[in-house]
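Closing statement on the 2-keto-D-gluconic acid sub-project.
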Amino acid sequence: MKALGEIGVLVPGPLNEHARQRIGDTFAMEHIPTGDATLVTPAMAASVRGIASMAPVRAPLIDALPKLEIIANFGVGYDAVDSAHAAAKGIMVTNTPDVLTEEVADTALGLLINAARELPSAEKWLREGRWPKEGSYPLTRATLRGRHAGIFGLGRIGKAIAVRLEVLGMPVAYHNRNPVEGSPYTYYPSLVELAKAVDTLICVAPGGKGTEKAVNAEVLKALGPNGVFVNVGRGSSVDEDALAAALESGTIHAAGLDVFADEPNVPRRLLDAPNTCLLPHVGSASVYTRDAMADLQVDNLASWFSEGKAITPVSETRHLQPKS
Ligand code: NAP
Ligand code: 8YV
């Protein structure tokens, strides 16, 4: 077995600094500025056995690395990794579940409160000196009192959000493809039925084909004029044109969004829409949580190459064993 320091690990694009540091200290680290497969040199192709990524890893990059055994993704959501292609080639994919769950749930709650109670706009009012000149900030039309919450994606983070919502006194319902065994929350087999039953919809489902534009005009209409929509899942799960139109027309009341379909670009219509709190994908973005994600990413690589098993394999590649 080779010493870890002799094993080539490629970092395509930007990566968390703590992760980079540990990869550089542990492995023979290679770097390319993006995941563009044409940037792979013959020397990299001959030596790289692992990828540590935060940026997309598509099929051409995987194919350009004939010795590749494992792709360790920085993040629990791995929609940017072509995991089906990796699995078909017998390449392990890992992600970073659990260590970020509470942080992202906190962010979802912050977005919900900000969107419903307009706290960022009220702060702007104060900072712009309008309080002494014009008096108190106008009363908010929305309140958390009496709300009914629906969670789209009751997994690890969805459950942590549900616990917080219960403390706020909100009944919780959810939509997944399958009901969660033993869950105390009401299950709806369709997203539109869930939206009809609640006035507060929180999306924390994974991105990808299965959820593409799932939150559409019909779902937003079902949520209704008192509706607040929060998204900490993926922007691809939302029809952003329909969301902007729903906010502009009052079809729903407010939105709190941490994720967008074409990050870091945010559609002008969402920037201009009323009653929105928009964040630049900061759900897990504390030093504490990002360090824990980095450690899990690197520990997955180290475990694979030294013990022959991944710590947190994604479901598509859970069955795989090292080839050598
Ligand atoms: P998880 O435990 O795997 O939960 C995902 C849930 O979504 C599961 O309950 C799953 O239930 C449901 N789901 C999956 N596909 C679905 C579909 N097509 N239709 C309906 N429900 C579906 O994952 P997690 O750890 O909670 O993370 C969830 C997601 O949050 C990540 O994938 C990522 O996109 C996002 N995230 C965002 C941030 C941020 O910074 N904003 C940070 C971390 C994570 P079924 O399998 O029964 O459908
Ligand atoms: C990360 C996330 O910030 O874990 C996820 O799925 O969306 C975030 O925690 C992101 O993956 C890194 O860019």
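The pocket of 2-keto-D-gluconic acid (ligand 2) is lined by residues 54, 74-77, 100, 283-284 (CB under 6 Å). With this model delivered, the sub-project is considered complete and its resources will be redirected to Aim 3.
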